[in-house]
Amino acid sequence: xxxxxxxxxxxxxxxxxxxxxxxxxxxxxxxxxxxxxxxxxxxxxxxxxxxxxxxxxxxxxxxxxxxxxxxxxxxxxxxxxxxxxxxxxxxxxxxxxxxxxxxxxxxxxxxxxxxxxxxxxxxxxxxxxxxxxxx
Length: 135
Fold this sequence. Notes:
This protein is mostly helical.
């Protein structure tokens, strides 16, 4: 059997909707005072997976990685405050950065493929679990 190029399966609307829902619902929860560590984790994971996949795929979208990095930096500050105080919130001043990151992630996800997203998510999860185990 002849081995050809690996098949690129584009991200479907359904998968894009799942990522969008994870990000948008968490963001909305933050805006109405119902944000928690679980919602934070879903939002941060979705943005981080898209960002890492874009880097591997060498995106042609201008400012994509810069915008996602800014959102991730903001989320790191949110996590630091949440871990320290037990209060999980995205303040008014932090919201534009996070919302720009969500918008950019949604725009970019259609340029990726399913296998790359799955591999990236698994790799990031493994890194997180490895860090948690090493503490």
